[in-house]
Amino acid sequence: MRYYRIENDNSIVDRWFLTEPLSLDVRAEIDFWPYLAGNQVPYPDSPLSVQIQRSGPELRFTLAGFDIPVVASDLIESMMKVDHQGIQSIPVVIGEDLRYRMAVVTRLVPGVDEKKSVHQVLGDGWAPR
Hints:
Layout: E1 17-18, E2 22-23, H1 33-36, E3 48-50, E4 52-54, E5 61-64, E6 68-72, H2 73-82, E7 87-94, E8 97-105
Parallel strand pairs: 3-7
Antiparallel strand pairs: 1-4, 2-3, 5-6, 6-8, 7-8
């Protein structure tokens, strides 16, 4: 199995910054945690809305508010060719622009081999277990 890591490039000078997604219908905040939990989410009735918090060059991959991945449509299509079961694509509108999608990772794999690592597992309330 191959693993890929896509990172937000914060070194780009004057890059745009995006807000967290909102419901386009009522311009209300959404519960964004399910979008970051590694599971399929219900498909919204309409695209979500992401606002430009700070103007700058558009990026094909960026982390919007709360580190939610916002990806150019053609890029997410390429990502889904690599792993069509592990990524869900949710349309987002940035201003009037519909060329972007929110990438929802729907399959998580352990990133640490716990048997070969010295570590401490924290449970509820951040107390060692």
